[in-house]
Amino acid sequence: MNYILLTAISSAAGTFSLSLVYVYLYVLYRERHIGLWALSWIIFLLRNILFDFGVLQWKHSLWEFNLYQLLFNASGIVFVWGIYLFNNRKIHKGWLYGVVLSVVATALLALLPVPQLYKLLPTAWYGGVVLLWIGIFFLFHMEGSGFGQQVTGYAFFLWGSLTLIFPLFPGWMTWIVPLAGLLRVTIAAGTIIVYFEKTRQDLINKELPYRLFAENAADIIYRFKVGPVPVFEYISPAALTVTGYAVEEFYREGSLFGTLLHPFELPQQQEDTGPRIFSIQRKDGVAIWAEQTVTYIRDSEGKVMAVEGIVRDITSRRKLETIAERADKMNVVGQMAVSVAHEIRNPLTTVRGYLQFMAYKKGDKALESCYEILIEELDRANDIISEYLLLAKEKRAKLQHCSLNKVIHAIYPLLETLATVDKAALRLQLAPVPEVLLDENEIRQLLLNLVRNAIEAMAHRGGLVQIRTYREAEQVVLAVSDDGPGIPAHLLEQLGTPFLTTKDTGTGLGLSICYRIVHRHGAVMKVKTDPAGTEFLIYFKLTI
Questions:
Q1: What sign does the CA torsion over 22, 28, 31, 35 have?
Q2: Dihedral, CA of residue 166, residue 167, residue 169 and residue 171, to nearest 10
Q3: pTM for this structure?
Q4: Neighbour count for residue 214 (Cβ, 10 Å)
Q5: pLDDT, tens digit, 9 for 90 and up, residues 277-307
Q6: Higher pLDDT, 340 or 66
Q7: Are 251 and 231 spatial neighbours (Cβ–Cβ below 8 Å)?
C-alpha cells in the first residue's frame, strides 16, 4: 500500500467517524442544527471519496477542480448555518459573501496558468477561517465549559490553522493530511463527550425543580427499599421538622419509621394505597397526627420492591375537625332539646303535682318515702331537661365590664356548700386582675359546673379544689384545679362532647355547657392533666 493511499484512507476515516457521530446524534435528538452538521460532514466525506481515492481527477479537469473546491466550501457554509441555527439566529450575510467570493476566486484562478497550490488558496483560507471560527464557538460561546467542548474546540482550531498554512508549505502535505484526519477523529470523540455532558446537565436541570420541591416541601417525601435489607433510599429534610429525627438517623436505621408511625404501612397491605391516619411520637415525646399516602413499586413478578410515600402533619387539621365535630354534635343536641324538652316537661309537671298531693294526704306512712323518691327522680329529670335547654339556646352573652374576682366571691358560699357536703376543701387564690367583658350569670354557671366536676372527680373524700385568677400578658386567666386521678388520655380530645361522662350518674352535659359559655365570651379553655390532678384554664382577652 503506497503512502498516498494510506493518507487518503486516514483522511476519509476521520471524516467518516465525524459523519457517523453526527448522524447518530441527529437520530437521537432530532434537532435541525445537528442535521445540518451531519449534512456538512457527509458532503465533506463525499469530497474525500470522489477525489482522494481517484474516482475523479481534480488536478487535470477544470470542472472537477471546481467541484472539488465547491464541496469543501459547501461543507463549511452548511456547518456555519447549523451553528447559527443552534443559537436561534439567522446566518450572517458575511459568510454567504465569503463563500461566493471563494468560489468565484477559485474559478478564476483555475483559468490562469499559475501553480496548483495557489489555485487552492481561496478555498483553503475560507475553510481555515470557518474552522477557526467553529473552534472559537466551541471554546468560548457554547453553553457550558466541559472537557468535551475543550477537546472539540482546540481540535477545530488546530485543524483550521493547518488548513490556512498548508498551501504555503506544500512539502508539509505528507504529514498535514494524516494529522487533519486524526483531528477529525478527535473532533468526533469530543463531540460525543459534549453531548454526553449536555445530556447529563439536561437531566440535572430537569431534576433540579423536583429536588427543590422535595427539599423544601413541608411534607415528608420518601422512598423506602423493602429488601433484601430495608433501607431508606431517599427521605426529605421535612423529616426533621415533622418527627424531630434528622435525615441521617433515618438513613442509618431503616426501621426507625416503624417506631414512629402506628401502624407503619409496609407492604403487608399491598393494595391499600389510600390516605391513612397515624399518631406519631416525635423525638421530643410530643404526639402529633400524620396522614400518609403510599405507592408500591413492584418487580415483573408483582413482588413489592420499594415503597414511595408522602407523610403530612395534620395535627392542626385534626384539631379543627374535632372542633367542627363537637359543634355538629352540639347543634344536634340543641335541635333535639328544643323539640323534646317541652313535650316531656309538661307531663312531668303534672305527675309531680299529683305525687305531691298524694304525699301530703294522710295515709300509709310506708308510701310517703316512696313518694319522696319519685319526686326526687322527677326533679332530676327536670334538671337534665334544663341542661338540654341551656345547650339549645343560641343566645348572645350579655357582656359587660366587670370584675372576675367579684363574681367568684358572690358565688363562693354556694360552691363552699357543695364542697362541704362531699367533704372536700375549697381554696381561693385570687390575684388583682383588671376587669374584662363578662356575662355574670353565665360565669356563675361556668364556675358551678367546673367546681362540681372537680369535686366529683376526686374519688377520695377530703380532696382540695382551688380557684385561682391571675393576669398573663394581655389575658386574665381563671383556673379551677383538683387533686383527683386526672383525665384518661383517650378522653382528652373528646372533652366537651355531649353525653361523654365517666360518672355513673352524670349526663355528660356539664362540660358541653362550659365550652358553650367560653365560646360566647370569645375566650379559650385549656386542660392540663396528670395522675396528680386536673386543671381547667380559661383565658379571657383584655379589652381597651
A1: positive
A2: 90
A3: 0.44
A4: 18
A5: 878 878 887 888 888 888 888 888 888 888 8
A6: 66
A7: yes
